[in-house]
Design a protein that fits this description.
11 strands, 43% helix, 5-stranded mixed beta sheet, 16% strand, 14 helices, 6-stranded mixed beta sheet, D-Maltodextrin-Binding Protein, domain 2, alpha/beta
Length: 348
């Protein structure tokens, strides 16, 4: 591994010098031969703040490589033979499950603060303990302008989106581009069944569904009257409301699909002990207070806590949400085929 090779080279140089001068390797030189360092690959808004907090709390040098979810996953997969990272962190357990299925993640680790998880939090931990949720958002909720669409007219089920009232008035993100969108597409197909789920999206397209690339573009469509109702990650909706956009959020009673932020450790992490310590820090009260502060994470901080004793941001709705857990193993198994089908039949 590249980083190990660097400190091993330094250690050999020290050993040679020590052998010449004293014939033995001093303990100080042994300690200096490996300086602890954490390398984090992440797509979270609060990752820089978390890295700084961890470094301050532990004295361990922390290097954060911040990218969007797609590039993070691609980088991890590209480095499978020579990983340069210790920990990976992004939204979406189906994509993390795919990394687990490829044998890239450490299994069987139990953080020392595991019992601090709520029931929802524990339900999102895979049986092999290959990754852990730090919080959960809705993969998709409804956003609307109450001055254009009264709250009483907002659908309470997905079938309501097929009403003639919403002809050419519904918009969502492209699941091949927007990280949070595939999990909710997978959730629809899990809840309805694959064939019926595909037919639902075909019917939605017949009703004039608009597909945009990302949350920002889809929100713009709502704000500029190109759609009456959009279907995107609820933390993005809450962030827009906080910024003063004249919109509201609603959750379908038929079910809201879970989108946890998930954190995993490289199976061959260059600094395994440090990687485990970082995961425990994220799940601690101190780490959660970093995450929940919008000054650190922006929209990513509007999540539903899964750690006992952590209070959510008051702007985020907590009650009345019918959570439907998206099975990450099933979602990972069909991800490529569903995205390809969606791209061919719905997006274009």
């Amino acid at each position: 591994m590249k980083r190990n090779a660097k400190w091993m080279t330094a250690g050999l140089a020290t050993l040679t010098l020590g052998g010449i001068l004293a014939g033995t390797l001093p303990m100080a030189a042994m300690a200096a031969s490996h300086q602890q360092e954490l390398v984090l690959y992440s797509a979270q808004g609060y990752d820089m703040a978390m890295g700084a907090a961890f470094q301050k709390a532990t004295g361990i040098k922390t290097v954060v490589s911040d990218m969007s979810t797609g590039p993070v996953i691609s980088k991890v997969e590209a480095e499978r033979a020579n990983p340069h990272w210790d920990v990976v962190w992004f939204d979406g357990d189906s994509s993390m499950q795919s990394l687990d299925d490829q044998g890239l993640l450490l299994k069987g680790f139990t953080p020392n603060d595991f019992n601090n998880y709520t029931a929802l939090g524990k339900s999102l931990v895979p049986a092999d303990h290959a990754y852990f949720p730090g919080g959960v958002t809705a993969a998709a909720a409804f956003a609307y302008n109450p001055k254009v669409l009264p709250a009483k007219d907002v659908p309470t089920t997905l079938q309501g989106l097929l009403s003639p009232q919403f002809k050419n008035e519904i918009a969502m993100n492209d699941p091949s581009i927007s990280g949070p969108t595939y999990p909710f597409v997978a959730g629809v197909m899990q809840q309805m069944g694959l064939a019926k789920g595909k037919q639902f999206f075909l019917n939605l397209k017949k009703n004039g569904l608009h597909i945009y690339r990302t949350n920002k573009v889809t929100l713009s469509a709502l704000l500029h009257g190109r759609a009456k109702l959009i279907w995107i990650q609820d933390s993005a909706i809450t962030s827009a409301i906080q910024q003063g956009d004249p919109i509201a959020v609603a959750y379908p009673k038929s079910g809201t699909y879970t989108l946890p932020d998930v954190i995993g450790i490289d199976k061959y992490a260059p600094d395994m002990a440090v990687a485990k310590r970082f995961v425990e820090f994220v799940l601690s009260k101190q780490g959660q207070e970093v995450m929940i502060n919008p000054q650190n994470g922006g929209g990513d901080s509007y999540y539903n806590p899964v750690i006992k004793g952590i209070k959510p941001n008051p702007l985020r709705k907590q009650s009345g949400i019918n959570w439907v857990r998206v099975n990450p193993i099933q979602a990972a198994n069909v991800e490529n085929s569903v995205k390809a089908w969606f791209n061919t039949n719905i997006t274009y």
